[in-house]
Amino acid sequence: MTAFVDLRSDTVTRPTPAMRRAMADAEVGDDVYGEDPTVSRLEQLAAAKVGKEAALFVPTGTMGNQIAVMTHTARGDQAILDVDSHIYQAEVGGLAVLSGVQARTLKNRDGCLDPAEVEEFIWPEDIHFPRLSLVCLENPLNDAGGIAAPVAAMEAVCAVAHRHGLAAHLDGARVFNAAAALGVSAADVARPFDSVMFCLSKGLCAPVGSMVAGPAAWIARARKHRKLLGGGMRQVGVLAAAGIVALEQMVDRLAEDHANARRLADGLATVPFITLDPARVDTNMVFIRYRKPGKTADDLVEALAERGVRVGAVGADRLRLVTHHDVPADAIPAVLKAFGQAV
């Protein structure tokens, strides 16, 4: 059966009709020469949305994060990261391969590093030690269950970093989800950080693209690193146009995805062999444990696919479900029915 609902990720969202129209009508130029007016408009809008001086349009979130690391560090430096973070876990070792940066990892507590532990991790100056130059955080933290860490918690970690002369970068792939969950603006979430990356192609439904934002001089250096990584694009206003629609029309509706995720979590909590804490569902992600004797998460994925529901296994007994624009509220009962049958 063709899947009637796809909960594997919010990256499966399709561009809206308004995005397709904007893409068709976009005014374009060569962006490597700085001549694409639609890209320029997107970068100005993105910077304003997260309260930064300037922004840079990049093809992917991974490239955006790696550009940020390259721009904040020198080869042989160290960076402090959450062991569950995307930059550390899911960017193919880019820290080491692209920037020559050594990772020092800590485990988050409720989606954020402990500032006291970060402080203890900062070594004194010594001829034997690499230079520590960067702290990276992620909000919401995907692998911690999509938890949105409070602004005050992030501020405390950034304060430690800045007191020791370190830069602080936010992997804000879903920063607008974090902001919606916390009841603040994306600029509030990003404020304590020197730089932030966020995606247009997840819950905001754009087909391609992410943004890196920070001070204007820093973004100028980041632009050169984008070119180094092969991210210099030409008449890319056709994609930037969709990003503008994403920021202007798709941010305020993210609360609908969060509400659908909570409905899904409440329903799944009643399904045999499935365990989760609905109170831990902050954003559009629902993580569950499937503990039926003799069965694995992959078995459940297959059984659900046969019933028209696509989900992702993220461990032997752990699954992730992500609500988004293409999962309407009236699809949730059908998903719960499929789970009941599959289990």
Secondary structure layout:
Blueprint: E1 5-6, H1 17-25, H2 37-49, E2 54-58, H3 61-72, E3 78-82, H4 86-89, H5 94-99, E4 102-106, H6 115-121, E5 132-138, H7 151-163, E6 167-171, H8 175-182, H9 186-190, E7 195-199, E8 210-214, H10 216-228, H11 237-249, H12 254-268, E9 274-275, E10 285-290, H13 297-305, E11 309-310, E12 312-313, E13 318-322, H14 332-342
Parallel strand pairs: 1-11, 3-4, 3-5, 5-6, 6-7
Antiparallel strand pairs: 2-8, 7-8, 9-10, 10-13, 12-13
Helix pairs in contact: 1-11, 2-11, 3-10, 6-7, 12-14
Describe the protein's architecture and organization.
The chain is α/β, with parallel strands linked by helices. The chain folds into two domains: 5-12 and 253-342, Aspartate Aminotransferase, domain 1 (Alpha-Beta Complex), CATH 3.90.1150.10; 17-249, Type I PLP-dependent aspartate aminotransferase-like (Major domain) (Aspartate Aminotransferase, domain 2). It contains 14 helices and 13 strands. The protein has helices at 17-25, 37-49, 61-72, 86-89, 94-99, 115-121, 151-163, 175-182, 186-190, 216-228, 237-249, 254-268, 297-305, 332-342; strands at residues 5-6, 54-58, 78-82, 102-106, 132-138, 167-171, 195-199, 210-214, 274-275, 285-290, 309-310, 312-313, 318-322. The strands form three sheets. Strands 2-8-7-6-5-3-4 form a seven-stranded mixed β-sheet, sandwiched between helices. A four-stranded antiparallel β-sheet has the order 9-10-13-12. β5 (132-138), α7 (151-163) and β6 (167-171) form a beta-alpha-beta unit. It starts with a strand and ends with a helix.
